[in-house]
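Protocol step 4 of 6: structure prediction from sequence.
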Amino acid sequence: MIIGIDIGSTTTKAVAIKKGVVIRTVKTRAYDAITSATGALGKMLVESNLSFSAVEKIVVTGVGSLFIKDKIFGIPTERIDEIEAIGLGGMYLCKRDSVVIANIGTGTSIIEANRDKITHLGGTGVGGGTITGLSKELIHSTTFDHILKLAQKGDLQHVDLLIEDISDRGISFLDPKATASNFGKMSDTAGKEDFALAIINMVFQVIGMIAVFAAKSRDANSILVTGNGSKNLLGQNVLNEISKLYHVGFEFPEDAEYATAIGAALSKE
């Protein structure tokens, strides 16, 4: 069994892979990389009722992996580049040999992966960190669950300037309800719920458009969404609306948030 551990800036994710199949996934949070990695491994083994001897190798990746200098609990430990891990994990999840991936974490990376080469196409600093950072100032909350709960009751028309606000007809292929300017209206009656939704909407619109441009530059008609942000249902709705406009599909596979850890483990299978 090989353990892949993705040590991120906020969350650490680990997967166990045996004979090319994911058999277990776990998530942990800790203040430093070593605590995160060892905690994730320990949780994996305890919950699976396994011993250290069951682990053939550990492969770490992510921003915190640079702090892992030696074996973990005596188990051979290697490091893999995060971009390569995302690419390998993405291909595993979509069951294809070629895919464009939008990996949404604290920020967002856009990657093209195929069996011959994994390429970092670019990305943006806009991501989950943007949502929590802006929410801290605008709605005084940094808890994702609370932000999402508020956003579910929000109304974008109180915060965003829509095309219908500036024109009595659609512009180009955009309908009147499309965003003309994020936070361009900011009504005096806007509440926390409206701000929460507007933040999520803006972040996923930026991610969606960057991903669409990248996909079209590679003649791809679909984008695999991975990372923590892949499970944000409100964000998924935003991406699906972009899909309708630009005819590029977004895929949200099961275990998408574990793609990087999966890729790390698979690199040594």
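Step 5 (inspection) to follow. The two ends are 9 Å apart (CA to CA).
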